[in-house]
Amino acid sequence: MPGSERTRRPDDGTSSFIVLVLDPVTGELDSYGPYDYPGALVEACRRREEFDRGDLVDVLVAVVPLHPAPPADGA
Predict the structure, then answer these.
(1) 31 three-state secondary structure
(2) Is residue 5 situated within a structural domain?
(3) Does residue 56 lie within any of the structural domains?
(4) Residue of 70, 72, 66 whose CA lies nearest to 32
(5) Which residue range is the domain that position 60 belongs to?
(6) 70 phi and psi, to 5 degrees?
(7) Where are the alpha helices (DSSP H) in 1-75?
(8) pTM (2 decimals)?
């Protein structure tokens, strides 16, 4: 799956990604993952197609990097 300007993998060393889904009508927000980058793109495409079939074209589906939280001890 070739990357476009909107789907190009970030060059910051991120290795985990989530698929973020936002319904602006209901305000519902959900996330799925983590995935590697190709896996996240496949999942995002699958979800986009599913929403399009249901005529839910306003639902936002995005692939975003997952940045691990620092350890609880602050180290």
Answers:
(1) strand
(2) no
(3) yes
(4) 66
(5) 17-65
(6) -65, 155
(7) 37-53
(8) 0.77
